[in-house]
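Exercise 7.
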Amino acid sequence: MKRLIFILLFLSPAIVSFSSQDNKINPKEEYLPQCGRPKGQIVLSTTSDPKSFNPVVAKETSTTAVTGLIFEGLTTTDGVTLEVEPNLASGWKVDSEGTTWIFYLRKDVKWFDGVPFTSDDVVFTFNQLIYNPDIPSSARDIFSIEGKTFKVEKIDSYAVRFTLPCKFAPFLRSMSQEILPKHALEDVVAKGKFNYHWGLDVDPKDLIGTGPFILKKYLPGERIILGKNPDYWKRDTCGKPLPYLDEIVYVIVQNQDVALLKFQDKSLDYYSMRGQDFPILKPKEQVENFTVFNAGPAFGTNFLVFNQNKKADPVKLKWFTDTKFRKAVAYAIDKKSIIDIVMNGLGFVQNSSMSPSSGYFYNPDVREYAYDTNKARLILKEAGIYDRDNDGLAEDKQGNIIEFNLFTNAGNTVRIQIANIIRKDLESLGFKVNFVPLEFNQLVSKLDSTFDWDVIMIGLTGGIEPHFGNNVWQSSGHLHMWNPRQDKPQTEWEAEIDNIFNQAVQELDKEKRKLLYDRWQEIVAEELPLIYTVLPANIFAVRNKFANLHPTSYGGAFHNIEEIYILPEAKD
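Solution. The predicted structure, written as tokens, is:
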């Protein structure tokens, strides 16, 4: 259930270490799905309501965690092997140039309302939604190369041709993009109402996908209930229809502390652990009948981002656009204390814009910023910022006190603790930092719509394919959050990153792509548009009531959710 594009994370698990006796992830050779019993429910938690149920305009996991169960793409990535596999497409072929692809669609797929899924839906999704300039879709950043789009054409009802402007290395993996129903949305788009369609007030019967689960009920601030799609096209090895589970329930909780309590009182079947939870939960595995899984380092990140939008306060903009200012902040963050205090000593410093779990394209040899407040003050003084009147507050050359607001999402207790430590670190430089936790969707609106913010601590999902962060790193990208949707790059280094991503996506030689993406990570570490903090790991506890559970770092606990079933002998 991984999202194609990089999106904003509202929840980050923490990092823990395991001994050789602890639970490991099942390798693929042990992954032999067995036919299961239908019926049953899984109860999960979320610390934020969804922002909408529209996957095309979504930029946050509070939305896509739900829509990822309702909508599907032509391909999917296996959560264990990471190989691309057919999904709504039964197969494909490509020409010798690698620029013309034909996808053959499954003929047994129906939308929730019974209408057959056809090539018209694929053509509509790309031509009328993703490539529609009036729709703010981050996917458009992924499916554009140097401003050129793909030509998407219907061959017949079950065959679609994609003609690419050039070679596109991650093309097959990118085809996990959700496909939406033409018959249900064509009039909505024509009337210019799509951006607000399928909002939180949607009638569940009007939310039409092809996925394993259907929206049954949404109770704001309480829960989201998804029911099984009785006409889902997938079958198990015994020919039985999937999914097995009748329902998935997301309980909306105020924060992670509440989620922990609900897991302990057996109200939840799954809990994403923080470092501080490890000594609480790990000793109780056998007695309380659950298992703690170590899925390895997470792909997601936590970072600070400063507002460099030209509409920002001009005084603050002068500080935030100065690389020296951002470097001083990077040196002032005590990452070791964050790991010790927030994560119970169980965490990793992050310096690169990719996680070590990303594999091949990760560059470990980027510039690092070891905690050094003296160096931070020296760099600030070079930038003309220091305490001029000995009142304990730093001022710029014009005498303005260095004061700004720091926001993060209120439901994430880990992020709040990290932000509080960073606030104190920055106050040691003479900065006046006003820390304000906000509801996640309000935070995203500031970041993505109103641009009314100074500094935000937030995260991104990350992944194994760098190009899927194109919506973040291209200067014109919808999630180029420090200064989004630029008409042209505002800096030389942003122009270089644009060029890197345009070159790398067309380069089929893996080693040459690696060199390009290494350079991108070096630039990010040098220019610091995002100031990385500590890297979480994917550690979670799951009730011992499920079969076919094969957790991985990439796919999480429930990447094969349609195959998971409840054991007949399961007890709380």
